[in-house]
Amino acid sequence: MQAKIAVLPGDGIGADVIAEALKVLRAVAQVWGHDFLFEEALIGGIAIDQTGDPLPQETLDLCRASDAVLLGAVGGPKWDDPKAKVRPEQGLLGLRKGLGLFANLRPVKLIPALLNTSNIKPEALRGTDLLVVRELTGGIYFGERGRRDGGKTAYDTMIYTEAEVERVVRLAFELARKRRKQVTSVDKANVLESSRLWRETATRVAQDYPDVEFNVLLVDACAMYLIRRPTSFDVLVMGNMFGDILTDEASMLAGSMGMLPSASLAEGTFGMYEPIHGSAPSHAGKDDANPIATILSAAMLLHYSLGLEEEARAIEAAVEQVLSQGLRTYDIAEPGSQVIGTRAMGDAIVQALVAGR
Ligand code: IPM
Ligand code: MG
Fold first, then answer.
1. Residue 106 lies inside a defined structural domain of this protein
2. Atom number of ligand 1 nearest to Cα 274
């Protein structure tokens, strides 16, 4: 098949991990006979440096003209001045909003070979396989914010419409039907009005899915249960900020932030794919960052935007194989494993992919 993929490496280790994901996608194209056209554009801090704008119009146009977007990471201390007029993160948020990417899928699946790299007890962890569906274009991230009283009072607004809640909750139910048929809606309905609307709406939508088990959970309790009994969850659906926080927490179940991919989906098949980790500036260019989250994000791209199931599964299998051979980046190392760099990990995964075909 033919596909056009916009590539936005961004800042810090973004370029390092994207290079490895591209290696893997090129190998897929070659082995399965696809024609992927990759086109690069600027996002985040590097875009501020070169154009003054964290999201240049050119980048948005390229994304809109593509079938999918592959993104590395944005941000870094260089652009962290709290008084700065533009921030790298605005580029990412602008992309999410501008491309209508309302649902962020963050699967947390423990790869058996990594059972002992997490600091959670193996007996609690074994079998963890959950999917967080995070609402991505609403909530407190996009509500009105500002300062008053000469700057001494600051406010952010958490705002949700029924329609926004309904479309992301429906997607969560549709995804649950393809998994273990269980949805947990997460909110703070004992305090927040927007959460009461969220819970009402989710509970109403649940009635259309009698075959799917439905639960609600307060976000604070959910944070605890994710650690205490992670295997009790299948699909979790929640608002933007709760999803941001709980997925960093949940990444520890998989052993490292460096393992967690994500897909941000619009209506239809268009999507943007990125690791959930940040730009880790101190590791940039050092050839030690874990590229697996980005490589697994490329697998999600093949699955959700291009419908290439076999190829997506082959990437996942190659990752599992390399890890079970004991090859590790520093963040998932354990006694007896062989620690390798970013490029060597990418090469090993390509090799396993080609050999497995
Ligand atoms: C994430 C990140 C972003 C977010 C930042 C970089 C704006 O933490 O994708 O989880 O908060 O959404
Ligand atoms: Mg985050």
1. no
2. 9
